[in-house]
Amino acid sequence: MQYIYTMQHSGHINQHFSCIVVDDDEIDRLTVLAFLSDYPHIKVIGSFYSPFKALEAIAATPPDALFLDVDMPGMNGLQLREKLVDVPACVFITSYPDYAVESFEKEVLDFIVKPVTAPRFAKTIQRLEEYLLLRKKADLLHHTIGADTIFIREGHAEIKLQLHDILYLEAMKDYTAVMTAERRFMVATPMGSLIQTRPFEQFIRIHRSYAVPKHFIRRVDSDELELENAVRLPIGRTYKEALTGLKT
To answer: Can you tell me the mean pLDDT for 10-36?
Structure first.
């Protein structure tokens, strides 16, 4: 029997989180700060035009989340994220959509293309809240393994999860999101370790952040694949060779 963690989002925000904003463009930085002002439970503890200034501040007071521009002089957002891997969540905001594929190699929670709009920012905040709540309010559970079934206990209830109902796995640092059509389970096990266990032996890693069941793959292109449920996920450069035989 193995032990993992999960939590179901209640829909009520009763936690406060901290964040830092880094963008060398003052207008863009002020725009992000203005959007964040609509979410009083997310406290901005720093706003910087310089990645180097941000590094100094974060060393003293680490935040829960980063909102980073990508294209900045001296050190871009991708490089800054590499130095701040201990910060739980990172959102990239950029004018250059071409950075999207590379950004997902940096454990990014979301990727927004400028100009930022209120509806798009609201989706990011929702995802950020769900992720941080899952990290901070995880409840102990266990799963027992049958031939093709996992039983997950949450509190006094047990949830029966068929392995063939799992659409894909998403790595979130020390956690793994187990995605089904109905909901998401957050597991306190790194994805690299999880896919080495027997229940997940039919999963193949396609990206630093994603693993999918082989039987769900419908189409493999050069930079992304499509699953049977029409979900499209990026393919990491280092994982392309493993998918060669599946390419269509």
So the answer is: 85
In a 13 Å sphere around the CA of 165, the CA atoms on its Cβ side amount to 14
Q: In this structure, which CATH number among 3.20.19.10, 3.30.450.40, 3.40.50.2300, 3.90.1570.10 belongs to the domain 17-135?
A: 3.40.50.2300
- What is the C-alpha R_g of the chain? 19
Comparing 72 with 1, which gets the higher pLDDT?
Answer: 72
CB 88 within 8 A of CB 132: yes
The residue type of 43 is K
Q: Residue 164: how many CB atoms within 10 A of its CB?
A: 12
Q: Can you tell me the distance from the alpha carbon of 143 to that of 165, in angstroms, rounded to the nearest whole number? A: 16
Q: Which parts of 90-224 fold into alpha helices (H)?
A: 100-103, 118-136, 191-194
Tokens representing residue 70 in the block: 């990508």
C-alpha span between 233 and 213 (Å, rounded): 13
Residue 154 has pLDDT above 80, yes or no: no
Q: How confident is residue 148, by pLDDT bands cut at 50, 70 and 90?
A: confident
For residue 145, pLDDT beyond 70: no
Segment holding 83, helix H or strand E: helix 77-83
Which DSSP state fits 13? -
Residues 215, 227 contacting (CB under 8 angstroms):
no
- Among positive and negative, which fits the CA dihedral 24, 86, 134, 78? positive
CATH of domain 139-246: 2.40.50.1020
